[in-house]
Each structure stands twice: as C-alpha cells, then as structure tokens.
Write a structure and sequence with these properties.
This protein has 129 residues and is α+β, with helices and mostly antiparallel strands. The protein has one domain (6-127). The chain is built from 3 helices and 8 strands, in the order ββββαββααββ. The chain has helices at residues 40-56, 84-95, 98-108; strands spanning 6-11, 13-15, 18-20, 23-27, 62-64, 71-76, 111-116, 124-127. The strands form 2 sheets. It has a 5-stranded antiparallel β-sheet with strand order 4-1-6-7-8. A 3-stranded antiparallel β-sheet has the order 3-2-5. Helix 2 (84-95) packs antiparallel against helix 3 (98-108). The two termini are 25 Å apart. The mean pLDDT is 93.
Length: 129
C-alpha cells in the first residue's frame, strides 16, 4: 500500500485571534477514479475532523478562515506528508495567507475537494482543482 495516496481532511479557521489548521488523514486502500470524489473514507475523515473542531468550540467561538474552502479533502502522495504538509501548515498559521496556502496545496496534490452541506441534502464534495 506504499503507493496508495493519502487522503487528508483539513480545516482552516480562526479562534480567539489565532489561526488553526487541524488535520485528519488516512491511507486510501481504494483510490477513486479520476473525476470521482472520495466516498466513505472522505466522509469519515471529514466527520472526525468536524467533531474535533466542534469540541474546540468549548474554548471560544470559531470562524471559518477561507469561506467555502475552509474544510477540504486533499489527496497527497505519501512522500509529501513528512515535510511539505507541515511546511504549508506552518506557513499558513504564521501568515494567514489563504491564497498562498491553497496554491501550495495544489502544487503537491493533484486532487482536492471542498466539503459542504446544504439543508436536506447529503454532504457534497466539490472539486477544488
């Protein structure tokens, strides 16, 4: 499974004047076809991450930092995880430059999806790039 890409859920938000980017990730056992969105694994990661973010709301109000792009699923090659993703996270936490952060994610990932929800509709995964 070393060749299987890693699926990462990430959230970009502000809390009490500080930026946060919690992550949840897992190696994919079955990679979805081009043009398709991750199925149950993507929704599982998004739910896990959202529960952790929700628990943080006990510490104070949360505000999305990147509008519709504040909750993402990103498919990454395993070799990008140890160095590239932590650098992107650190850069965004220090600068708050969401455009640069998203461009950096796009450079290391071929696929990403925005996670969204509308009343009476299932969770939607919309391609970012």
């Amino acid at each position: 499974m070393a060749d299987a890409p890693y699926l990462v859920a990430l959230a970009l938000f502000d809390q009490g004047g500080k930026r946060a980017m919690p992550l949840a990730g897992k190696s994919q056992t079955e990679v979805v076809a081009e043009g398709e969105a991750p199925g149950s694994l993507g929704k599982e990661l998004a739910l896990d991450l959202l529960l952790r973010v929700w628990q943080r709301s006990d510490e104070g109000p949360l505000q999305r930092a990147a509008a519709a792009a504040s909750l993402l699923l990103v498919e990454l090659p395993m070799e990008r995880l140890p160095e590239d993703l932590p650098q992107i996270k650190a850069g965004w936490l220090s600068s708050g430059d969401t455009t640069t952060c998203l461009k950096a994610l796009q450079r290391i990932s071929s696929r990403a999806w925005r996670v969204s929800s509308e009343k009476f509709k299932p969770v939607a995964l919309t391609p970012m790039w």
